[in-house]
Amino acid sequence: MDALTGPVLITGTDTGVGKTIVTAAIAASATAAGLRVAVVKPGQTGVDPAYGEVTDEEVIARLAAPASTRTLAAYPDPLAPIAAARVAGMAALDLYTVVDTVKHVATEYDLVLVEGAGGLLVPMGPRIAAMPGGGAWNVGDLAVSLGAPAVVVTRAGLGTLNHTALTLEALERRGITGLVVLGAWPADLELVHLTNLDDLPGDLHGLLPEGAGTMEPGVFRRSAPGWLTETLYGSCDDPRLLAEPEE
Ligand SMILES: Nc1ncnc2c1ncn2[C@@H]1O[C@H](COP(=O)(O)OP(=O)(O)O)[C@@H](O)[C@H]1O
Ligand SMILES: [Mg+2]
Hints:
globular, 8 helices, two-stranded antiparallel ribbon, single chain, 21% strand, Rossmann fold, 34% helix
């Protein structure tokens, strides 16, 4: 597969699987390869300005320093974006505004990484602005509207085979290409991690070590290409080889 350009969705099998750190790794690798990279976070939730919590955009800017980062809407409560907007009495995300923004950003940058919220089918905003509650749009709809592929970030532990298969099946039925990346490969390996890696469905395009997100940014940027395939601007021929237990 050729290296990805234009809009690319970064989704996952669940919330907290490492989408942000994987986005930073791809952004760092593509930037090092000479691309102008933009990162867009359509809906950031769980960030209450009163507590000064760090946003995904801030994490990515610090670790990867891509040419551009932006957050389109931020909501205080840690909920799905459609619910976070409702609870806060704030404007919900509009699919076509997000599509237009990402398309516009894609005219100015080589690669646009769009980090979803939670997993693929999380409700992002109302499908029809005038009819709240009448169905929601999700990151799958965004990928279809953009004609963009999706990176699926997965866990290493028990349950990941089902979650990864479900997510890939949902992508396939929408005609979206899916690339699998393991978000955090444990340092202390158990049998289940190794068997999961053998049985993980889809095409594995990356494997990040646990602790990647806590690396010093210079170390992170130097290390990131080693975790990803050439399709994601890395130098790793086979991410499964990164998982071999130490002798
Ligand atoms: N490879 C990793 N190394 C260290 N911490 C990680 C790694 N992947 C995820 N995390 C941590 O796990 C939590 C969830 O990761 P995050 O990237 O925010 O997930 P998501 O974006 O999918 O919600 C964060 O606290 C993050 O720092
Ligand atoms: Mg995130």
